[in-house]
Write a structure and sequence with these properties.
Rossmann fold; 4-stranded antiparallel beta sheet; alpha/beta; elongated; 12 strands; Arc Repressor Mutant, subunit A
């Protein structure tokens, strides 16, 4: 899952980025309101964490302009503005959720999971696809009733595919969700992750759609 973090406070941004990366999220960190608006308009992220007090363009302006441009990426506003009026303005501008600073990483993580579930039409943290099970809350995976050990990136890849079981997931979407805007990632990085997952599951659990992407069937074997 690719998250765009928009935060101009260096210590806080560093802490949030490190915490999210430990939870297997790909994070692109921006510090400027204009950069944030451009990134939202590109719609390359699965979710945006948006501070309001930004240089060059206020976060509320960024959010309002993005929504007027029909950007539907989920947005969680992060701000020290605790007044009721500020929260209402943020939600009315198009925020999907609101976090008042300071906050605990555990709460941020839970809100990200909740918002992601809603965006994917899921009611719980558990995803079941045939003989595959994934617990988003605990980062545990099972295949044919046996627990399998996955790296953080393998878990993220499997989650994306399982959330879209029966549908082709384009290569570009997978790379963006796993690596964000990191241009240093090699062209074969995704294939390496797919191969590693197949070794732990089975070759038929993930299908290659040549020239397009990958897919997990609704009833993988």
């Amino acid at each position: 899952m690719h998250i765009i973090l928009v935060e101009d406070d260096l210590p806080l941004g560093t802490a949030i980025q490190h915490a999210l990366e430990k939870l297997s999220y790909a994070v692109t960190w921006l510090r400027d309101g204009r950069e944030a608006l451009a990134a939202l308009r590109d719609q390359t992220a699965d979710l945006v964490l948006l501070d309001l007090g930004l240089p060059n363009k206020d976060g509320l302006e960024v959010l309002a302009e993005a929504r007027r441009a029909h950007v539907n990426t989920p947005v969680i506003v992060m701000t020290a503005r605790d007044a009721l009026e500020a929260r209402v303005r943020g939600l009315d501008a198009g925020a999907d959720d609101y976090l008042v600073k300071p906050f605990h990483v555990e709460e941020l993580s839970a809100r990200i999971r909740s918002l992601t579930r809603r965006a994917q039409g899921l009611a719980a943290n558990r995803i079941d696809v045939g003989v595959l099970s994934l617990d988003i809350g605990t980062s545990e995976a099972e295949f044919r009733g046996k627990r399998i050990e996955l790296t953080r990136r393998e878990f993220s890849l499997l989650r994306i595919l399982m959330e879209r079981a029966g549908r082709i997931v384009r290569r570009e979407h997978l790379e963006n969700s796993l690596y964000g805007l990191d241009n240093s990632v090699g062209s074969s990085a995704l294939e390496v992750q797919i191969h590693a997952l197949r070794r732990k599951l089975s070759f038929d659990a993930i299908r290659t759609i040549r020239g397009v992407g990958y897919m997990i069937p609704r009833d993988p074997t």
